[in-house]
Amino acid sequence: MVPPRPADSAHWEDGGVLVVDVAGEFDADRAERLCEPLLRMTRIGRRHFVVDLAAVDAVRSDGALRFAEAALRLGAAGAVLAVVAGTAVRRALLAAGAGRVSGGLHATRADALAACRSRAAGGRGRPTPDSIG
After folding, report:
1. What is the CATH number of domain 15-125?
2. Which of 47, 54, 95, 112 has its CA 20 to 30 A from that of 11?
3. Contact 11/19 with Cβ under 8 angstroms?
4. Cα–Cα distance, 69 to 63 (Å, whole number)
């Protein structure tokens, strides 16, 4: 019997940033199930996303590639996507071309949220206190 995959969870943070937590193995199917709803959200005006891959313990190359492709589509749609990833996951994403995600690759959720909130406020650097929530 194959153990079930952990379910992704999502919640809204102050400033209109959707945070999606992903755990377990990350393959092409998982990447698609993660990114397609984000792409649909851009069509209704939601544009700031953090994908937290810190709890991902294995990334298949097809998953990294599919995620990189979707990340580029999100950027082209005007979305800001910031990704939280540990060293091994970051390496896999960079090898697949995801180093150009619009909100960057980050070691911590706090840094990824700051990047999204800063971009939401129209800046490029760290957010000002007035731009946060």
Report:
1. 3.30.750.24
2. 95
3. yes
4. 10
